[in-house]
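Quick question, first post here. What does this chain look like in 3D?
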Amino acid sequence: MLCEGVTSIVRIIMMRYSIEDWLWRGLFSGIAVLLLIVGTMSSASARTFGPAMDRFLQDYKKAWESPSPARLLRLSDDPGIFLDLVALDRWDYLASSKVIISDVQYETHIRNELVLNLTRQQHDLFLQGTFSSGQVHERLVLRPSRGTLRVVEYRGARSGVRQSAVAKTWASKRAAERTLMQAMNALVRHDVTSCQEKLAQTFARVNPQLESLPEPFDGKNVVKANAYYVRAACRTLKRQEDGGDITESDLTDLGTAITLYPNHLLARLLRARLLMEQSRTTDTSGTVQRLMLAKSDLEVIAKRYPELEDAASLTTLVEAVLALSAKQSLPDHQRERTRLLGLLFNAQNEIAGELLTKLGEPAALRRVAPEILAYASELAIADENPAKAKELLYLYGAHCDGCLGDPYLRARLAELEADTVSAMTLYSDIIGSDPSYRDAVWRYTKIALERSDEVRKDALRRLASVSSRLPRYERRVLGLIVALATHSRKLPALIDVLAERFADVPLPPGVRLTLVGGLQRHALKTR
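> Answer (accepted):
Ran it through. Tokens below.
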């Protein structure tokens, strides 16, 4: 079914694929694209195919401008040609792109077909704040059809020039870009030595490359921000390998990255983690200030990209520690609260079930530190311990007195116990009170799409009734989901709906993966 898994959330800290792997395959997309076409073609080709070629290049441009692969699929009568491109999970993380296409040439004619060669330089900005840059030489085989040109074969990088997309082969005039991209790739591979060696050139005392780094994203400082972020991330990786304390240099670099590009969410997440760790290992005089800064970073992430891995659970943890820290001056149970704070500061290094055991019995937590009952309940759910979760949630519900966190966690528990009816009811109540409660919206939708047609229709009507109060992203994606639920499930119809009505709406990972499955089945049938 095309709607199965339609709202599954892919979580990520760094890209699973190396940047170089993406680039040599020529697999790019974008939102804001600058197209520059230069090159040569025969006069006969220009007369015969000129207008059609102009239209094709404009459509190709729009396809790569789109955050969805739907427009790309419509460039061919056989959408399976682009299967490998649609299968890349990079589509799930794009914020915007800038592309320069050059060196457009018609290579030859084969059975009234054109072999089109072009060079594409690509700069992709991702939702997490990172970016990728590269250059690829592409080859497409086109066939005239009713006044248009249709793609009959996509060959990706041209034979013999594939290496041009690999950063280490870039020309000397791109040395600064090349060095930073190599450092970023080394970070993805957890190659600390290579990462630091490359960054030594970027931040060299004599002739540093930092100031010569070009900025492809207009009005932003993405590239320099990433240089500082990568240096802090490499240092953190090195410290994890060798041991040692956090240095102010790490926090300074992350602060600089965030100042240069406030939407660098990975920099904010890493800073929040380091601030939590620093609060554990240093004196308590600045603890509250550090935790407030961490909470501020996590709030920005929640607004911009709430699916970022571990950000939500870290937010709950920081809030629990802040609440507990505020009571440290009280004389009663001070020793026990100090013990609990020590456990929470070290929680990022603990397994959920083991930490839950160390926190102690629920009744004792209710007496000494009711502020951490929500976090303890989440631990029990993560540990798949419904008995302990029920005990904790009973106490948490009495403590929080009508807060939305109570029904949300009870709905999560109902999901754990496969009680989807109760979970849907609880999520529905939350959505009615606060449609901006994103995780409740997505969990409710996911359950509904896995139920019967009648339940699914009722749920979609429920969502439609509050759609005007939903955040913009959820409103657009839910519109897409409703359309898919009410249209033909056949592949051509699905592609038409996506391209005509939702070309500028990023596909939820579940929808994209469903599309990939349809393309794979199509490819098997046409072999």
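The radius of gyration is 26 Å.
Residues 19-169 form a domain with the Nuclear Transport Factor 2; Chain: A, fold (CATH 3.10.450.50).
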